[in-house]
Amino acid sequence: MARLMLAMVLVFYAAATAAAQQAVFVVRHAERADAGAMAAPMMASDPDLSEAGRARAQSLAAMLKDAGITAIYTTEYKRTRQTAEPLAKALGIEATVVPAREMPSLVEKVKAATGNVLVVGHSNTVGDVVTRLGAGETVKVGDNEYDNLFIVLRTENPALVRLRYK
Question: Which has the closest alpha carbon to 124: 108, 153, 101, 98?
């Protein structure tokens, strides 16, 4: 009987510890309206999301609405803010804007946050954020990839999960 009680306590302890783990969800912004344009003009502009991008942003919101997100971080560009907007509205959270060139500052804000966090970045910043969060893996996001969802579990030894979403 004592062993059964001990086993039950260990199971409840493990479940409580798992529930207390916090995660950072990191995505690249959804499809931009000028995705077919040449790379140089794209970098100089601040386009809105395309229709496909808006649909992807809605999909992200539906997927993460019950994930316990307590903070959302985006860059100053419309496409990151528009990607986060459906989830922010659904949760009643105002996204915090951090300039794209200030990834170290962003990561410090994320590390200080309590609860689960969403970070919406760019193909050239997502990997940096994941690495700075200590996931130990180098990730790259291609210029035509919009469906990656990286989950960094904030544990003593952070773990990384890479998923795809529509």
Answer: 101
Query: Does residue 43 surpass a pLDDT of 90?
Result: no
51 contacts 65 by C-beta, under 8 angstroms? no
| pLDDT per residue as tens digits for the range 1-38 | 433 333 333 333 333 344 457 999 999 999 999 866 54
- Predicted local distance difference test score (pLDDT) of residue 45: 81
- The CA R_g of the chain, rounded to the nearest whole Å, is 18
Grouping H, G, I as helix, E, B as strand and the rest as coil, residue 58 is helix
Q: How far is CA 102 from CA 32, 97, 119, 140, in A?
A: 22, 11, 13, 19
User: How far is Cα 105 from Cα 96, in angstroms, rounded to an integer?
Assistant: 12
Q: Helix crossing, 51-64 with 78-91: angle to 10°? A: 40
Q: Which residues 6+ apart lie within 8 Å of 5 measured at CB?
A: none
Sheet containing strand 96-97, strands side by side: 96-97, 69-74, 116-121, 22-28, 148-154, 159-164
Q: Which two tokens stand for residue 6?
A: 């001990």
Domain 22-164 has CATH 3.40.50.1240: yes
* pTM, entire model: 0.84
